[in-house]
Amino acid sequence: MPGPADERCWRIDVGDAAYPARLLDLNPGERPTLHGVGDRARLDELARVPAVTIVGARQASSYGLRTATALAVDLASAGLVVVSGMARGIDAAAHRGALAAEGRTVAVLAGGPEIAYPASNRELHARIVAEGVAISEHPPGRVAEPRHFAQRNRIMAALGAVTVIVEAAQPSGSLITADVALSLGRTVGAVPGQVGVRVAAGVNDLIRDGAHVIRDARDVLDLVFGVGVEAPSVTQRGSPAPRPGAPLDPDLRALLELVRAGAATVDRLAAEGRMASRDVAVALARLELLGYVAADPLGGYSVTGLREPE
């Protein structure tokens, strides 16, 4: 049963002018009343701005987390809305990437929209509510039940013009999202995974069965806008037009270049930069505060869409 009402929450019914048109592609009986918390204008943007749904394994690898973060950073920097479910792993990494790029993100939750689930993502939920929007078909106070997670996947699939799966075991909830997206006539892409790795089995099966291969943001943008057609802020393959950040001193600039080159952890950066791990950790914290890198839950780092000022 729902708990006490939260005054921050709002409601949009089917038929309201603000109701997302893409949800009308669902069967009439599956079209949800939406309860939300955060900026309602983010839902209005879905009528004008394409959305990409990024989902994947909860028990994701560091490779999967870095890939989801980087995809979300670049897609949000290109102006797209990043939709995900705020679960541990890939979902959370996608939201963090979009927020790192100061972009648009929508979280679709399995319980009341004001309830951070899992609780370990409470800080992430607060950021999404402050800078984006969290929505649910369940009213405020409703605690998520196991069956709700598979049910909410249809909302994520409907909202995205493209659904991208980044790591998924076989079976998994992410594959349910992909199936729903296909049934709605949406495009499905998958990031290739290492053969023999459990969390790669689902994505590799999707590719075998005809899903589009996603190597970087440019592949997604080609699916959204058409091959060779550029989004307003996209300049070249996989590289949305970068936004200027704060000036960097030489040491931070050198470390940032190592992250760009693929040295994504403190230990590897320390080894390649011939620095003490403590100094690397401090420098990474500075780069993250300045918006140049985004951290994933396993301690890996990816560059964002910022560039140094000229």
Overall description:
With 310 residues, this protein is an alpha/beta fold. It has 2 domains: 10-232, Rossmann fold, CATH 3.40.50.450; 242-307, Winged helix-like DNA-binding domain superfamily/Winged helix DNA-binding domain (Arc Repressor Mutant, subunit A, Orthogonal Bundle), CATH 1.10.10.10. Helix content is 38%, strand content 17%. The protein contains 11 helices and 15 strands. The protein has helices spanning 41-45, 62-77, 90-100, 122-131, 146-159, 173-183, 201-208, 217-225, 250-260, 266-273, 277-290; strands at residues 10-12, 34-38, 51-56, 81-84, 104-108, 133-136, 162-166, 187-190, 212-213, 234-236, 239-240, 243-244, 293-295, 301-303, 306-307. The strands form 4 sheets. It has a 9-stranded mixed beta sheet with strand order 1-2-6-5-4-3-7-8-9, sandwiched between helices. Strands 10-11 form a two-stranded antiparallel ribbon. A two-stranded parallel sheet has the order 12-15. Helix 7 links the parallel strand 8 and strand 9. Helix 3 packs across helix 4, helix 9 (250-260) crosses helix 11 (277-290) and helix 10 (266-273) packs across helix 11 (277-290). The longest helix is centred in the N-terminal third of the chain and has 16 residues, at 62-77. It is globular. It starts with 9 loop residues before the first strand and ends with a strand. The model is unreliable at 234-240 (pLDDT under 50).
